[in-house]
Design goal:
There is one protein chain. It is built from five helices and five strands; from the N terminus they run E-H-H-E-H-E-H-E-E-H. It has helices spanning 19-22, 27-37, 51-61, 80-88, 127-137; strands spanning 2-7, 42-47, 67-71, 93-97, 119-122. Helix 3 (51-61) packs parallel to helix 4. By secondary structure, it is of the alpha/beta class. The protein has one domain (2-137): 3-Layer(aba) Sandwich (Rossmann fold).
Length: 139
């Protein structure tokens, strides 16, 4: 089973930025833990701060991968283009967030992507990614 994890803007700074919200671990460190936890899965990771590059990645893998775990960062709340890309591909997409976006600023309470996704997971720290993977592999 092939699962693509995609992180959007500013998530390359995990472990450095706003540690009280996002923790003190980099995603690269956590990704190694995910790979060890799921040795029978092919997990790949991609991060971009650029909306169009995220769309290109969804188009690239969206018909050949078994699922996508997507943390689109702030694009979650603004990107009709990413929502359209999710709707256009075959692979199911799980929207994930490290923080509980509903405990944060009002503008974070709405997702432009959720309606195009299989499901949404928020507020479990980095474990939100594991839960996203679990939701894709459970039959």
């Amino acid at each position: 089973m092939n699962i693509q994890i995609i992180n959007g803007p500013n998530l390359n700074l995990l472990g450095v930025r706003e540690k009280s919200i996002y923790g003190d671990s980099s995603f690269e460190t956590y990704f190694v833990e995910l790979q060890a936890r799921y040795p029978n899965l092919t997990l790949t990771y991609y991060q971009s701060n650029v909306e169009g590059e995220i769309i290109n990645k969804l188009h690239e893998i969206g018909f050949s991968y078994d699922g996508v775990v997507l943390n689109a960062g702030a694009y979650t709340h603004t990107s009709v283009a990413i929502a359209d890309a999710i709707a256009a591909i075959k692979a199911p997409v799980i929207e994930v967030h490290i923080s509980n976006v509903y405990k944060r600023e009002e503008f974070r309470h709405h997702s432009m992507l959720a309606a195009s996704c299989k499901g949404v997971i928020a507020g479990f720290g980095m474990d939100s990614y594991r839960l996203g993977i679990e939701s894709l592999i459970v039959k």
